[in-house]
Specification:
By secondary structure, the chain is of the alpha/beta class. It has seven helices and seven strands; from the N terminus they run ααβαβαββαββαβα. It has a seven-stranded mixed sheet, with helices on both faces. α1 packs across α2. The two termini are 19 Å apart. The relative contact order is 0.17.
């Protein structure tokens, strides 16, 4: 194992590092949460990562997304993340998809080839499709719930979707997944009540549907990043069991 993994090997052991090196993880959504999830995976030694996102870096991303700098504005987020990943570990196998995921595009992906799937997309319909496709393929998946309008990174928890509360997105996901017979889904969510910003749109209440609202949530650097790193940690811990 390469020397730069030596500190990880001291903690996890050589066998675990070999497992991570032989694993392939798909990350859907390379934004504030997904970008940091990719960072955590690559630095932990995951051997292959697929990056799926059709968005390009914009000025409003700079305050919170690891792929966003003045130099990367206008570039596809997946391309920036891929370049960064290879700069960290030249041996990692990166596959990029410069497109947004939707249920209509599900057949473009072989979900059974992944060892784990990370759902870090914003669209509710896309999230539901990812969960259903992962379930059909027998591939574990972890989903990010809402990280917008939050200021307390210590309020994040890892739980089953049916044990969540407060988060408006989690509420919608609970209802829709129950309708579709999904009995369990591992998620990262925040119990923090959405902050009422001094300007801009009011945050969603738990009774509002984020898939139909026009709200643009406020966000800062130290909340979605924490959610992304928590997700990466959960994936790594499960892959080495």
């Amino acid at each position: 194992m390469q020397e730069w993994f030596s500190r990880t090997e001291l903690l996890l052991g050589k066998e675990a590092l070999n497992k991570l090196n032989g694993s392939r993880v798909a990350v859907f959504g390379i934004g504030g949460v997904g970008g940091y999830a990719v960072e955590g995976l690559v630095r932990a030694g995951i051997g292959a990562v697929d990056l799926i996102d059709g968005d390009k870096v914009s000025l409003t991303n700079i305050n919170r997304q690891i792929v966003a700098t003045r130099k990367t504005m206008g570039m596809y987020k997946v391309d920036v993340a891929a370049e960064r990943a290879l700069d960290i570990n030249p041996d990692v196998k990166i596959t990029v998809y410069r497109s947004f995921y939707s249920g209509e595009r599900a057949l473009d992906f072989d979900f059974s080839k992944y060892d784990y799937i990370i759902d870090a997309v914003d669209d509710v319909d896309a999230k539901i499709s990812l969960v259903l496709q992962a379930q059909n393929a027998g591939t574990p998946i972890i989903s990010s719930m809402g990280a917008g309008n939050k200021l307390d990174p210590t309020a994040f928890e890892v739980a089953d979707i049916y044990n969540t509360s407060v988060c408006p997105l989690a509420r919608v996901m609970r209802r829709e997944l129950k309708r579709r017979g999904v009995k369990s889904l591992k998620v990262v969510f925040s119990k923090e009540t959405p902050v009422r910003a001094p300007c801009g749109n009011e945050p969603l209440s738990e009774n509002e549907n984020p898939s139909r609202a026009s709200h643009v949530p406020g966000s800062v650097s130290f909340v979605p990043s924490v959610a992304g790193l928590i997700i990466a940690g959960e994936v790594v811990k499960e892959l080495i069991r």
